[in-house]
Write a structure and sequence with these properties.
Shape: globular
Largest sheet: 5 strands, parallel
Distance between the termini: 47 Å
Order of helices and strands: EEHHEHEHEHHHHHHHHHHHHHHHHH
Bound molecules: iron/sulfur cluster
Number of helices: 21
Low-confidence stretches: none
Structural class: mainly alpha
Oligomer: single chain
Length: 521
């Protein structure tokens, strides 16, 4: 692939203007599947607005731009008329709305088409184009579950339980099922109990496939560094697939080399080893360079061929067929105000170290440092270290959600917001989870080697050298205990909190207050 790619600049009228957003890079369905190459025009846009409405990590922006440019180049190579607007093009009006307006004025299309956007904000923008021109929004066939099907499943349920949804998906698509089509293969629906091992010695997992940088990617990396110098994250070490072929190779590499131990160690962490046995495929999936069906099929095949055990394959399948689809369903059924929920009524500020990694807590310094360096962390640092800390400390969930949306290369609105507001911060009034993912430092100590190198004492919950996770964990239970009264899943934790003497309780509460002051929460 060369560095140049075509930017259509003809004024010839278009029949259909097909708008392709950066997270819709699959030409196999929707309006791209039946293009009239002579009369239709595909519009793709890089805009400052999208990079600045949350402070997008440089690698996140680079991934979107590079993957979009490769996709546009492939379309153009196949004879499609592509109008591609680069971020630094003179005349770029720097917003989707205004660029579509400019294209409509120039090409005078009979209609505008796009696949259903992955974000309420963008959907509203697209719907407003109807004032100017007929607009058709096509079903997003990338997903197993159409939005209206999830809505029917969700109807009348106060609380959504992923496990029930997932079991229905398994049966419906006949994935990892016994020959009767009703019982799960191996006799269990999930193998979580086998998937919680920590490393006893320094792990040595096979290195994940890292694509070589193309000329297009190099050009984009320079552009991002020059144009968005104040956006967070490092541009060095960009390692993400930017084409369909690269994404497919990353999938094959994972199945062959890391899936086998993925399940067993999926919750484990280790200093300076962010990738371990994880697939790193979520960025490719969320840009639609990979289809969830092929991920599920390849994992099933690996089990049938004896390449990977059931606990690993089931854990991987659950992410694609269960959790990812469930989270998207939650996003669209809960409405555009979902990201503003604050069910625990927390109002603190996100500490600065979330942007710099500069912390004396060994776990947070490593986990945030990895996010800055790679725009990535696997689900346990996300949920049980960074997210857990923000919730325990009392940070406003909107600040946490904006940080996640900005800092991860796989962050798209439909995925990031329910994972943060619902699962991580328990701010959605219990729609996604029946209890908060609150844990003291003990969990981190059990699943990693972080505490061995930390200045804080994991065994302590009071005093200057007490582990801040411990201090905040008990303080969290004191602050929110009343909310969880009657919640059986919280009963043990609350009972333990009640056993703490009133003197120690005062000490913990005051340590938490001074920690908050010191950290700027
Ligand atoms: Fe993190 Fe506490 Fe362990 Fe330090 S002692 S690494 S702050 S969990």
């Amino acid at each position: 692939m060369g560095g140049a790619f075509p930017r259509l600049n003809d004024a010839k009228k278009a029949r259909r203007l097909v708008v392709v957003f950066g997270d819709q890079l699959d030409a196999s369905f929707g309006p791209l599947a039946d293009l009239d190459k002579t009369r239709d025009v595909v519009l793709m846009m890089e805009t400052d607005e999208e990079q600045r409405y949350v402070r997008s990590h440089k690698q996140r922006t680079a991934l979107f731009f590079s993957a979009m440019r490769h996709f546009a180049a492939d379309l153009a190579d196949s004879g499609v008329r592509v109008r591609y607007v680069c971020a630094n093009d003179r005349g770029n009006l720097q917003s989707f709305d205004e660029e579509v307006g400019r294209a409509i004025a120039k090409l005078r299309p009979e209609s505008v088409h796009c696949v259903h956007p992955g974000e309420w904000r963008v959907l509203r923008t697209v719907e407003a184009w109807r004032d100017r021109v007929p607009v058709e929004i096509h079903e997003d066939e990338h997903f197993f579950t159409p939005i209206d099907r999830f809505q029917s499943w969700a109807e009348g349920r106060k609380q959504f339980t992923m496990e029930y949804f997932y079991r229905e998906q398994r049966k419906r698509f006949d994935v990892l099922m016994d020959s009767d089509g009703k019982s799960p293969l191996g006799g269990a629906w999930n193998y979580d109990k086998d998937n919680r091992e920590a490393f006893k010695v320094t792990p040595n997992p096979p290195k994940p496939y890292t694509p070589r940088l193309t000329e297009i990617t190099k050009e984009v990396l320079d552009l991002v560094e020059a144009r968005y110098p104040d956006n967070p994250g490092s541009i060095e070490g960009f390692r993400w697939p930017v084409t369909r072929d690269q994404a497919r190779r990353a999938l094959d590499d994972f199945i062959e080399h890391r899936l086998r131990l993925f399940g067993k160690y999926e919750d484990a962490m280790w200093t300076e080893q962010p990738f371990l046995y994880h697939s790193l495929l979520s960025p490719s999936g969320n840009l639609k360079l990979l289809n969830p069906r092929e991920c599920v099929e390849e994992a099933e095949r690996a089990y049938e061929d004896g390449v990977a055990p059931l606990n690993a394959v089931e854990g991987f399948v659950r992410q694609w067929l269960g959790w990812r689809e469930f989270i998207r369903g939650v996003y669209w059924t809960q409405g555009p105000d979902y990201p503003n929920r604050n069910g625990l009524d927390q109002h603190g500020t996100l500490p600065d170290f979330f942007w710099t990694g500069d912390s004396d807590m060994a776990c947070l310094a490593d986990c945030v440092g990895v996010v800055i360096d790679h725009g990535f962390a696997h689900h346990v640092p996300r949920l049980m270290v960074m997210g857990n800390f923000a919730m325990l400390a009392g940070v406003h969930p909107r600040e946490v959600a904006d940080w996640y949306l900005a800092m991860f290369v796989d962050a798209v609105d439909w995925a990031s917001n329910p994972n943060t507001i619902g699962m991580s911060q328990h701010a959605d009034h219990g729609v996604v989870g029946t209890k908060p993912y609150a844990a003291s430092g003990k969990y981190i100590s059990r699943m990693s080697n972080y505490c061995e190198q930390c200045r804080y004492k994991i065994s302590k919950r009071t005093g200057d050298d007490a582990c801040p996770f411990n201090v905040f964990f008990w303080d969290f239970l004191f602050r929110h205990g009343d909310r969880f009264e009657g919640n059986n899943r919280m009963a043990m934790m609350l009972k333990n909190a009640e056993r703490i003497s009133s003197e120690e309780r005062v000490e913990i509460t005051s340590s938490a207050a001074s920690l908050r002051g010191r950290l700027g929460v």
